[in-house]
Amino acid sequence: MPASPKTAPNLNKLLQQKNIRALIFDLDGVVTQTAKLHAAAWKKMFDEFLQNGIENGPKSQPPFSIQTDYPRYLDGISRLDGIRNFLLARNLELPPGQPEDTFEKRSVWGLANYKNELYQQLLQTQGVAIYPDTITWIKQKRAENFRTAIISASKNCLQVLQAAQIENLFDVRIDGNISQERNLKSKPEPDIFLEAARELNISPTNCAVFEDARAGVQAGKAGNFGLVVGVNRKDASEAKALLESGGGLVITQFPGSQ
Ligand code: G6P
Ligand code: MG
């Protein structure tokens, strides 16, 4: 989808008007094209589970939908919380299980481990693609002395940044591992963004948040950030969902790259 000329160029002006000094970026779907790989791994795992794995609960289930289930229940959410969200939505229950469980155990941990195996396979076979518009804009803003942070619910965040060779574009990183160590709540709670602002040593009101996930936009809104920007890499209906989740504006591309 082409960039909306109304929204993207406004961004640079808005940063100035709102006295923004730091930029906090979500990883998957904003900086790297890895949200698609997560969605594909989730679909493969859940479809296998829905076809063969259900012992208790409604047996006839529609397959996992990348268009509807992913943004509602999994996008931007930690691995285990995402699984719990999806199971609840489908009226299914599984025991939590143990961190070493395999898929065959039919536990939340078993499903999580299998999904991660599938995601790792996709990272190996497809590699990590960046969004060139985001990277160009981040470099431009860093040259203008904006501070930058990367946040992600993902425990694979550092691996993805290293694969794309972009970890040095961020002053601060708060990812899934750090969130676990510090007991930060999953989006839509604002914890991960607030922690990034704290480490940047800049008040949230002077930070802008960039998110492609509905839960992430809600988190930015809940944290009272100076600007919450929905980054829509999908279709127009997703732009509406991001605005309804609390996005101050929605862009389809970063400025300067049209
Ligand atoms: C991102 C993705 C989610 C994923 C989450 C955890 O936010 O949008 O789909 O579940 O990270 O990722 P992980 O790599 O730790 O399973
Ligand atoms: Mg994302």
Task: Report on the architecture of this protein.
With 258 residues, the protein is of the alpha/beta class. It has two domains: 10-33 and 130-251, 3-Layer(aba) Sandwich (Rossmann fold), CATH 3.40.50; 36-126, DNA polymerase, domain 1 (Orthogonal Bundle), CATH 1.10.150. 45% of the residues lie in helices and 10% in strands. It has a six-stranded parallel sheet with strand order 3-2-1-4-5-6. Strand 4, helix 10 and strand 5 form a beta-alpha-beta unit. The protein starts with 9 loop residues before the first helix and ends in a 7-residue tail after the last strand. The chain binds 6-O-phosphono-alpha-D-glucopyranose (G6P) and magnesium ion. Magnesium ion binds next to loops.
Concise overview:
The chain has 258 residues and is α/β, with parallel strands linked by helices. It has 2 domains: 10-33 and 130-251, HAD superfamily/HAD-like (Rossmann fold), CATH 3.40.50; 36-126, DNA polymerase, domain 1.
The number of domains:
2
Beta strands, count: 6
Largest sheet: 6 strands, parallel
CATH architecture of the largest domain: 3-Layer(aba) Sandwich
Major β-sheet strand ordering = 3-2-1-4-5-6
Q: What do we call the CATH topology of the largest domain?
A: Rossmann fold
Overall shape = globular
CATH superfamily of the largest domain: HAD superfamily/HAD-like
- Please write the CATH class name of the largest domain: Alpha Beta
Features:
binds magnesium ion, binds 6-O-phosphono-alpha-D-glucopyranose, 10% strand, Rossmann fold, DNA polymerase, domain 1, alpha/beta, globular, 258 residues, 11 helices, 2 domains, 6-stranded parallel sheet, single chain
